[in-house]
């Protein structure tokens, strides 16, 4: 996959000439683990203007945190909240149930979990607490904090869930609504006349997870930022699927989250030739959440909300050509964004020309030539 891109173009062509210094820009990151190959070649992260690295919690070690600290990089953990599928091995009753009353198969293999399963919630909260207790991270980012769905592609696959007996009982109790006993008739009511209440209840449930995660962060490692990687659709796109299907209420989550990392993967999501889409989605998010990027800087900013997009420069689904690296980063670093990271180091590591283009852009906005 990596061999297809980047061939033959002069490196300088990939450097966006519009990359002006961005003194307000706090974070120039990479996502996907320690860039070992780069460090082993004798380079430093500073050589590439990189000052932050996101690592999946499964790959996080004290040695990697130490190594990144020596490189003067911020270290952010990524934490899987609602798609931790190994849990189902011993607790199959945590599998989401579809509108037909049966277990809903994982769309395109993306396995979500029922959001009201008490043991699952406890397991995730305990795991979250352990990551923060064990590792000296600068922040922790929620990932997959949405319902059972496969949305990371140009045409998403969004089944309606979860209509398990537990979810239906809780909905009825908490909204004082009576549903038919028969699950198919109950789901028809919830997706029909009761759709607004059902969506609001599900969104509140997913937000309540964020509230509890935030509480744990506050107790265990209060200096760490709480971020979230989230779907880049606006509130009205795809019939309001952000709320109706994915159960994401960004405005409500804003009470608990410090940093919103919108995921405008332009190539993967059907906008391969329209990098400005990245800036449009990010600008929408700023308006929607009332975040301008002009809020006080990090030193004074406990409580300030931020937008740090994660943009796609690796090939996934579609190739991202070398010449697009600069424009993608330029679009991803406009206000209201005050930080950025890239998807993803694992694929990018083998694409030396793109890594050089990334470094050139990051150095330029950091005003290091
Ligand atoms: Zn359920």
Protein architecture, described:
The chain has 369 residues and is of the alpha/beta class. The chain has a domain at 1-72 and 258-369. The protein contains 13 helices and 9 strands. It has a 9-stranded parallel beta sheet. It is globular, with a radius of gyration of 21 Å. The two termini are 31 Å apart. The chain binds zinc ion.
Order of helices and strands: HEHEHEHEHHHEHHEHEEHEHH
Instruction: Tell me the total number of β-strands.
Output: 9
Reading side by side through the largest sheet, how are the strands ordered? 7-6-5-4-3-2-1-9-8
Give the structural class. Answer: alpha/beta
The unreliable regions are 1-17
**Which percent bin holds the helix content?**
25-40%
The hetero compounds bound to this protein are: zinc ion
Q: Average pLDDT across residues? A: 93
Q: What does the overall shape look like?
A: globular
Largest sheet: 9 strands, parallel
The end-to-end distance, rounded to whole angstroms, is: 31 Å
Percentage beta strand: 5-15%
- What is the number of helices? 13
Radius of gyration: 21 Å
